[in-house]
Structures are given as C-alpha cells and as structure tokens.
Task: structure prediction
Amino acid sequence: MTRTSSSADAWKAEVASIRDTVESIGIAIVMAFLLRAFLIEAFVIPTGSMAPRLMGEHYNLRCPYCGWEYDHGHQVVAKIERAEKYPPRGATCPNCRREYLLDEAHEAHIDGGDRVLVIKYLYTFIDPKPWDVIVFRNPQNNRENFIKRLVGLPGETLEIVRGDLWVKRPGSDTWSIRRKPHHVQKAMWQILHDSDYPLVNPPQAPPRWIAPTDDDGRWDLTSQHTRRMRFKGGDRGTIVFDGANGGFFPFYGYNKRDQVRSQIRYQYNYDICSDLKLSLVFTPGEADSRIALVFDVLDQRLAADISADGVVRLWQQSRRPADGADGTAGQRAAQWFADGPWTLWEQGLIAPLQPGRGYELALTNVDFRLTLRIDDEVVLESTDQDYPADYVAVKARLAPRILADTPLPDTKVAISAGGGPSDLLHVRLSRDVYYTAMFRSRPQGTAGQYARDDPEYKRLPEAWDAKPGWAVTGNPIKLDDDSFFVLGDNSPQSLDSRRWMQAAPTLRLYDKGPGGKTSRRYQLGTVPRYNIIGKAVFVYWPAGLRVPGLPSLPLVPNVGKMRLIR
Result:
C-alpha cells in the first residue's frame, strides 16, 4: 500500500511540474506579445541610410592595402545566398582611399542588417529630442518602417549650410547652430585617417603625415611605418596631414565612391569638411616638451597648445588669400596663409605632464566650438563670444564663392612640437557628419498626387525637381504643428526629409473646414507625430559570426558589436 501511494504522489508531482512549466511558457509567450504590442519591438534594418552607425545588408571588409576594417553596403539587385561570397563592387577604404580588390581571393559574404530594439509609445509620455534615433512609418508609403535621426521639432525653421544644421526656434528671428550632445557627437565621428593603419601595400607608399622640406630633420616619421611619430627636440617643428585627392571630402566607405551623385549637389570646391577631430597619445620626453594641434578652416586658423609644465591655451588667427588670389574662377589653386596676430581665446593650468607618460589629447572643431580634451576630460572650450555661430556672416561669406563656383580656403591639419623630445602614437583624424545638399525628387504615382496638387508644382512642374530639397541651402523649411524633420547619418544615400515629395494616401492629408471646404494638412518632407513608432535604443543582434563549416548560418552572437544607439 505504501509503495502504491508513493507512486501516485510522484505521478501527481510530475504532472504538477509539467503544468507549471506549460503555464510558465504560456505566460512568457503572452508577456512577449504584450511587450511587442505596447512596450518594446524588434526591427531589422534593411538599408544603410544610418551607416556607419547602423547597418543594412553589407559586406564586412578588411582593406588589403592598410588593414582598416570597414562595412560596405550591399545593393540588393537579386536574391543572394548567405553561404556564397560576392565581389564588393565600388568599395573604397575610408582610411587610405584605395579601391577594394575585385578578385576571387577578396570576395566576401554578405551580412544581414542590424536588429534593433525600439521603445514604443515613449513619446506619448515625453517629448522627442533633437538627435534621437527614431523608427516611424514612412510618410510616402505607410507600409514601410524607416529609421532616421530626428533633427527638427514642430514650429522650428531649419536650413542646412555647408553640412551643418541651423535652426530658428518658434517665436525667434535668430538662427543658431544645432549642436549635438557629447554622447551623440562621439557616436557620429567618421574616420579620415588612423596612423595605426598606414598604407603599407605597396611598401613605398608615401606617408599621410609629412614634414616640410625646411624641417631640418626634427621629426622622425619612419618608425613603424609612421605608427610612431617622434619629435627629436629643439626649435618648433611641424608636420602636416596630406589631404590631397579629396582627403577632407565627405566620403563614406559604406557607399560606392560615385553613388547617387545625380541626386546630390556636390561641389568639390565647397563640400569640404571642416568639423574635425584630431586625437593622439602624446608622451613628453622632458619637462619643457610642448605640442600644438592646429586646424586651418575657412578663413581662420585654430590651435590648442599644451606644455608639459601644465599651461594650456586656445588660439585663433585670421587667414588671407595669397597675393594674386583674387577669388575668381581662374584662381582654383589659390593658397591661403595665416596673417595677423594670434588672438588668445582661452587659457588654463593643469597638473604638469610627467615625462615618459602618455596622455590622450583630442582637439575638436565642431558646430562652431573648439574643445580640448586630455584623457577624455574637457580642459578648455571656446565660448560663443570667442567663436560666434553667426548664420548671416557664414552665408554672406560663402554665397559669392558658390555663385562663382570658386574654391573655399583649403582645409589643413597640422601638429607642431617644440622644446624637449616627444613621441606621438595613435594619431587619428576624424570628421563630423556632413549633411549634403539634395535636389527634390519628382512625385510619382498615386503617392505623388498630393505634391502634384501643390500650387507651386502646378505653376512650374518642369522646374520642381531642379530645386533644392527641403531645408537644403536656400530652401529653409518651417515645420508645422506636430511635424518633425529627420535625416540619415549616411547623408548621400539617405532617402529622408530632404527628398520626400510624395505622401501616402493613408496619411491625414486634408482638413475639412466650414461648408465642407478642404485645406492641405500634411506638410511634405515631414514625419507626422502619429507616424512615429518609438525610439531606437539598442542593437541587440548585429550581423552574427559564421559557424566554421556552415557559412550560411551566421548564428554566433557578435557580442562586441552589440551597442546602445546614440
């Protein structure tokens, strides 16, 4: 009897355990559906409009010339097999600017797009902020979801000028630069050159950092293929970054080199990046070692100097054209020289630098602010009085050159050292996102009817797509109530607010007034508030790593590329 009773109890306990397990699984499934419906949803990114922060289908490449690893977008033209390798046509390294080899040995697998988590309905409780990365229903086709960076809020007026975003806030007649928070800016830097990846194939390739011919050998740039740059000591000596052949052009390794040029108003003498970051590890050899980081941007020279005794300063100096460079179209090779006295912007005192110890220095010139960081701490920063973001002055200075198609002053980056010897390592030059100027697109199909009904389109339909896009230089946009403006980080390839000339029929296009009269409600080029799904916060599954022997199954989590979205 006892044995039978024990068997029955065991059976009941097993059934209860199975029931608990089934209930737990059921609750988990229900919770997952509730989370997806009301809190968090996962999305996969199909295109590279937010590259290099967020990837669509892409190749992961390593440059055969310098070793730099970068992602290059795959243009979907036919069905692909994940197990097969394909030639990444049009790929060019963003570090050394060499085109990728198109031979069988350098073919690569195509990886899937990043998978991201989106907090839904967040903006029901808080207002969207500029520079948030959001997911929304595409206003041109409500069946598609897009991911972009939100840059304009209701009531604001926006205009892109030389890659920067300017804003006029509601109730104000004053333009100001739309600056990014530090954590956003940190995520948006893009590589121009990293000395840890010098061009070593072919071996005789010239270095990107060069010393003037009158340097008298004060710099040794031969150590470790220029990975280590050594100042031997003595009077001040200078090295300059070789920015020839488009070194400061807003180039994206993710894109084909000449991609979508027909859609972009590139002006090679005008679209030159001057929002830059120069970072390096500086090791002073003696107590009197000193270093200066220098940017030549537009018509001024900006510099930060750091002495081992702890004195740090920010400087500015005006630049002028060389004699005979009158700014006419024939003067394309005109050089600009620093002229006039230096103006001290800011000065400070930090703890003396210890000889033999490395210090991380970073000078950034971005959004009309010059900042010096040491070991990732701000030690000096220009003020608005030092470095005014003057919209009127910027446009007045640029307009004559744009109209005459003449070059802007050349951009230069230099490093000067003096006093005792010093070493430089990990020298990296980066640029900010540069928002390009795009033409309008011609409205097509049913979704284009709303634009074709626009009074401006009816007046001159043939001139519609020859005009600049929304918020592009010369065509500012004032946002209506509950309308938002978005841009992609991969500006040349992004189909974003600048080019939206269509409207899905399912949008709330019209308002009805007294007597049944209708008025246009939707503003072309914007995202209505009701189309916003939520804020993208985390890449939970970047392209997975492939299992050896099973190349078609990239199932190994790539933990190193999981990241917060900034």
In short: The first strand starts at residue 40 and ends at 44.
